[in-house]
Amino acid sequence: MPKKLLIIEDEHSIATLLSYNLVQAGYETIIANDGKQGYDLALSEKPDLIVLDLMLPSMDGVEVCKSLRQQKVNTPIIMLTAKGDEFDKVLGLELGADDYMTKPFSPREVVARIKAVLRRAETSPVIQQDGSVPYVFGKLQIFPDRFEVFLDDKQLEFTPKEFELLVYLAENKNRVLTRDQLLSAVWKYDFAGDTRIVDVHVSHLREKIEANTRKPTFIKTIRGLGYKFEEPKSS
């Protein structure tokens, strides 16, 4: 059964071109021409991935992305922006987008990006772990095969990318990992060395698993190098 993709794009020519190329690549597509329609379709149609333009009528891409994440919709999102503005890219990632692309772009590049994001989303729940035995770090439990994380017996919600990053950090407990290493291991393709993507996602993880993000106990920043995942010391 083909993957279902939702394209939220108000420029008819771009939406049509994207849809044509994605159908040729074997996907099913749904098109929404404004943000509110796209948001409603994301909830009702439950697509496998969303291609989301930043500038939209009725409800812009930032608000669509933010609202979906607030509703615990963890569907992968690729955000499109015509501005090429660094702020837009980082803002989209901070709100929970999984990837971004700047217009103009080639249809072949879009298809490649979509395949990469879907591949990560499919593989992240089953990362190098047999059975249902979790990684346990104090009150934090990570079940790689079940795509579940519990803190103080309360289940936490993560996007596929956040979860994959958390599992990779946990698998490499007590190792200092550079931002470039994390980019290569988790994103698996060239982001032109934009290591801020790593910083944004580490910030997301800290907001969810740390009691105090200013004094993290799990994900430590190693100044000048990168990050290290540690088990909290017993009090």
Automatic annotation (TrEMBL):
<dbReference type="GO" id="GO:0006355">
    <property type="term" value="P:regulation of DNA-templated transcription"/>
</dbReference>
<dbReference type="InterPro" id="IPR036388">
    <property type="entry name" value="WH-like_DNA-bd_sf"/>
</dbReference>
<dbReference type="Pfam" id="PF00486">
    <property type="entry name" value="Trans_reg_C"/>
</dbReference>
<dbReference type="GO" id="GO:0032993">
    <property type="term" value="C:protein-DNA complex"/>
</dbReference>
<dbReference type="GO" id="GO:0000976">
    <property type="term" value="F:transcription cis-regulatory region binding"/>
</dbReference>
<keyword id="KW-0805">Transcription regulation</keyword>
<keyword id="KW-0804">Transcription</keyword>
<dbReference type="InterPro" id="IPR001789">
    <property type="entry name" value="Sig_transdc_resp-reg_receiver"/>
</dbReference>
<keyword id="KW-0902">Two-component regulatory system</keyword>
<dbReference type="Pfam" id="PF00072">
    <property type="entry name" value="Response_reg"/>
</dbReference>
<protein>
    <submittedName>
        <fullName>Two-component system alkaline phosphatase synthesis response regulator PhoP</fullName>
    </submittedName>
</protein>
<dbReference type="GO" id="GO:0000156">
    <property type="term" value="F:phosphorelay response regulator activity"/>
</dbReference>
<feature type="modified residue" description="4-aspartylphosphate">
    <location>
        <position position="53"/>
    </location>
</feature>
<dbReference type="InterPro" id="IPR016032">
    <property type="entry name" value="Sig_transdc_resp-reg_C-effctor"/>
</dbReference>
<feature type="domain" description="Response regulatory">
    <location>
        <begin position="4"/>
        <end position="118"/>
    </location>
</feature>
<dbReference type="InterPro" id="IPR039420">
    <property type="entry name" value="WalR-like"/>
</dbReference>
<dbReference type="InterPro" id="IPR011006">
    <property type="entry name" value="CheY-like_superfamily"/>
</dbReference>
<keyword id="KW-0963">Cytoplasm</keyword>
<feature type="DNA-binding region" description="OmpR/PhoB-type">
    <location>
        <begin position="132"/>
        <end position="231"/>
    </location>
</feature>
<dbReference type="InterPro" id="IPR001867">
    <property type="entry name" value="OmpR/PhoB-type_DNA-bd"/>
</dbReference>
<feature type="domain" description="OmpR/PhoB-type">
    <location>
        <begin position="132"/>
        <end position="231"/>
    </location>
</feature>
<keyword id="KW-0597">Phosphoprotein</keyword>
<dbReference type="GO" id="GO:0005829">
    <property type="term" value="C:cytosol"/>
</dbReference>
<keyword id="KW-0238">DNA-binding</keyword>
